């Protein structure tokens, strides 16, 4: 009997009907549409941008690169980080080649690589705003400039493109960027002893290290993480030196946020909980987890654990969305989870998926895979319409078009997805997650292979080992594995038992088997040439409640089946949705409707609906006066699929 030391995962083919639909949508609709938008060729409206940033319908992102490359004349348009829309799109396109070769798209992306190379300065610098309109201010206002953030997003794209296509120019651009950053940042004489206001470069450099094996890129990522917060006044000092006037700000209002908002008030090892901008937090956490794993930095790992626990146990919505307030797109405080003003930026859910994946590489704990699953099937996926051409920046858990129009405090909450955004970070971010979802299904630790996502796939490892998983998840909990192990090598297969599945049945080679659950996984010793495993998960509809510390959900319940969180929509139920009451033991009925919303599981819940008082009735009355109600069935659809029909109210949390 041979023993695997580290089984190498070579290729994963996603066979899930659910995810194949989304991945093909990325190729056929999302990427072509976003390319047109970035080239200012799409007829779009961004007048309802939740950011209210006043930009018109143009992206100008490709034009900025052409101006920097000397192929056009003009000024930079958009945010200082406008380039990143292109880079995330390029990364998504790169992943798509792994499952859908497309010569026409490949010509576009190869030409785009050439354009990016032409736009890059001789020293490796590339951030078009500063190259076109402010060359004298490079690296001078890092709190707001997003320069390292922008180059980090290209580095990620370059790594992905090289990995998928073998294009050396794509990787060379990334290395030259990193070399430029390395020459300019550090504690040595003449270097900048700082870091970017928006973390991202740390995780990007870690990925570049993985692709090249060049340790100084990992060292540079480690430097940025350790240096953050060492001089809490670093950003303010730069602003003073660059001209301390609000009209010199690169993004209006950014100077008004606290040091905590930028995760710069103190060194990371001393930060007890995550504060500030939610996307910054999870990008930073992803970088910390990467670097902690490769360097063994215990302080960074401890910070990862602290931040994870605070986010997941005290500041995360049931859908996986994070970031409670529109002010700074930020975290607020523990158990503050308002549903109707929730921000829940799509990018934050994507970033939380990154963080969860990296934590799985460190700890074999099911809780990380549970959150990853929650994001994939709920919080992140909600960010895109079923047509691939409309998007949510903000993902509320309660919405009413009348409230969004009439209450300025809720104007950021859209009840239908928008064509595009002036700050368009979310659409391409979600596209790259969907296109790379095959990379999120397995984690290999030593001689153990963890299968932690129930997304049907065929996986190939070294020495001919193949693991095939088939299912109809998330609508069915019957999971089937077939393992082909021609050399009969010995390894452990860990299969996650989700926290939502209180019970499960396991059959190995046709024999009913009982195994203990260890940190969310069961482990099966494999040493035969072939093996079949059948896992039956508990897919009963569950009526959920929040911790009673969450005042906004006190006296409310939500509905979940498997990993899917459900929402009630006005499209299916008479408004107002606030008039429905559901008991904790309410009778539920589930069925799959293949014609609704491209095929979804539908849950009907027995409810009581209060009859509304007349408009002429007093505003306040004695509570002892009876209120008429009637028994009804409340129809609910998956949260990710809401707002794909007529505009109307939506609620996840229902009155108990």
TrEMBL record:
<dbReference type="Pfam" id="PF07944">
    <property type="entry name" value="Beta-AFase-like_GH127_cat"/>
</dbReference>
<dbReference type="Pfam" id="PF20736">
    <property type="entry name" value="Glyco_hydro127M"/>
</dbReference>
<dbReference type="GO" id="GO:0005975">
    <property type="term" value="P:carbohydrate metabolic process"/>
</dbReference>
<dbReference type="InterPro" id="IPR049046">
    <property type="entry name" value="Beta-AFase-like_GH127_middle"/>
</dbReference>
<dbReference type="InterPro" id="IPR012878">
    <property type="entry name" value="Beta-AFase-like_GH127_cat"/>
</dbReference>
<dbReference type="InterPro" id="IPR012341">
    <property type="entry name" value="6hp_glycosidase-like_sf"/>
</dbReference>
<dbReference type="InterPro" id="IPR049174">
    <property type="entry name" value="Beta-AFase-like"/>
</dbReference>
<feature type="domain" description="Non-reducing end beta-L-arabinofuranosidase-like GH127 catalytic">
    <location>
        <begin position="11"/>
        <end position="438"/>
    </location>
</feature>
<protein>
    <recommendedName>
        <fullName>Glycoside hydrolase family 127 protein</fullName>
    </recommendedName>
</protein>
<dbReference type="InterPro" id="IPR049049">
    <property type="entry name" value="Beta-AFase-like_GH127_C"/>
</dbReference>
<feature type="domain" description="Non-reducing end beta-L-arabinofuranosidase-like GH127 middle">
    <location>
        <begin position="448"/>
        <end position="539"/>
    </location>
</feature>
<feature type="domain" description="Non-reducing end beta-L-arabinofuranosidase-like GH127 C-terminal">
    <location>
        <begin position="541"/>
        <end position="655"/>
    </location>
</feature>
<dbReference type="Pfam" id="PF20737">
    <property type="entry name" value="Glyco_hydro127C"/>
</dbReference>
<dbReference type="InterPro" id="IPR008928">
    <property type="entry name" value="6-hairpin_glycosidase_sf"/>
</dbReference>
């Amino acid at each position: 009997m041979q023993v695997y030391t580290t089984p190498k995962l070579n290729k994963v083919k996603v066979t899930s009907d659910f995810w194949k639909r989304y991945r093909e949508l990325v190729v056929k609709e999302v990427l072509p549409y976003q390319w047109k938008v970035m080239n200012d060729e799409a007829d779009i409206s961004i007048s309802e941008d939740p950011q209210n940033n006043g930009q018109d319908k143009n992206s100008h992102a490709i034009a900025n690169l052409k101006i920097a490359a000397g192929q056009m004349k003009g000024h930079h348009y958009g945010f200082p980080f406008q380039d990143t829309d292109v880079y995330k799109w390029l990364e998504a396109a790169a992943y798509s080649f792994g499952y859908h070769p497309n010569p026409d798209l490949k010509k576009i992306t190869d030409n785009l690589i050439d354009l990016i190379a032409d736009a890059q300065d001789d020293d490796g610098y590339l951030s078009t705003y500063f190259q076109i309109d402010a060359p004298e201010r490079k690296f001078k206002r890092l709190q707001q400039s997003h320069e390292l953030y922008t180059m980090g997003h290209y580095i990620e794209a370059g790594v992905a493109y090289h990995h998928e296509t073998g294009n050396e120019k794509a990787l060379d651009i990334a290395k030259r960027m990193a070399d430029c950053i390395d020459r300019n940042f550090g504690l040595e004489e003449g270097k900048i002893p700082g870091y970017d206001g928006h973390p991202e470069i740390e995780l990007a450099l870690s990925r570049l290290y993985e692709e090249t094996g060049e340790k100084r890129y990992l060292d540079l990522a480690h430097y940025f993480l350790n240096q953050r917060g060492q001089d809490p006044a670093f950003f303010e000092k730069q602003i003073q030196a660059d001209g301390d006037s609000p009209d010199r700000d690169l993004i209006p209002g950014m100077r008004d946020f606290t040091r905590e908002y930028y995760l710069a008030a103190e060194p990371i090892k001393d930060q007890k909980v995550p504060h500030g901008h939610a996307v910054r937090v999870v990008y930073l956490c992803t970088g910390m987890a990467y670097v902690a794993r490769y360097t063994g930095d215990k302080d960074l790992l401890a910070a990862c654990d602290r931040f994870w626990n605070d986010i997941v146990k005290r500041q995360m919505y049931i859908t996986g969305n994070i970031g409670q307030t529109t002010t700074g797109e930020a975290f607020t405080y523990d158990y503050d989870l308002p549903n109707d003003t929730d921000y829940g930026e799509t990018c934050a859910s994507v970033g939380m998926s990154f963080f969860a994946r990296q934590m799985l590489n460190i700890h074999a704990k099911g809780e990380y895979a549970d959150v990853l699953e929650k994001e994939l099937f709920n919080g992140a996926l909600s960010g895109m319409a079923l047509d691939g051409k409309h998007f949510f920046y903000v993902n509320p858990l309660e919405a009413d078009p009348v409230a969004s129009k009439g209450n300025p405090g809720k104007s950021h909450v859209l009840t239908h997805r928008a064509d595009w955004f002036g700050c368009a970070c979310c659409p391409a971010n979600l596209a790259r997650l969907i296109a790379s979802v095959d990379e999120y299904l397995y984690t290999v630790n030593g001689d153990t292979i963890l299968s932690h996502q129930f997304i049907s796939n065929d996986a190939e490892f070294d020495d001919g080992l193949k693991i095939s998983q088939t299912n109809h998840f998330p609508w069915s909990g019957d999971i089937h594995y077939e393992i082909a192990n021609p050399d009969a090598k010995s390894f452990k297969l860990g299969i996650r038992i989700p926290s939502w599945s209180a019970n499960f049945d396991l059959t190995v080679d046709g024999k009913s088997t009982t195994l203990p659950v260890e940190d969310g996984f069961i482990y099966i010793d494999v040493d035969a040439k072939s093996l079949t495993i059948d896992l039956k998960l508990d897919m009963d509809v569950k009526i959920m409640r929040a911790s009673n510390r969450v005042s906004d959900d006190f006296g409310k319940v939500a509905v979940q089946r498997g990993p899917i969180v459900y929402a009630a929509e006005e499209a299916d139920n008479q408004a107002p949705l606030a008039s429905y009451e559901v008991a904790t033991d309410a009778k539920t009925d589930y069925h799959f409707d293949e014609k609704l919303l491209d095929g979804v599981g539908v849950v009907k819940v027995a409810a009581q609906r209060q009859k509304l008082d007349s408009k002429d009735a007093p505003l306040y009355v004695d509570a002892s006066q009876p209120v008429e109600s009637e028994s009804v069935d409340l129809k609910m659809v998956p949260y990710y699929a809401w707002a794909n029909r007529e505009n109307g109210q939506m609620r996840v949390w229902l009155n108990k």
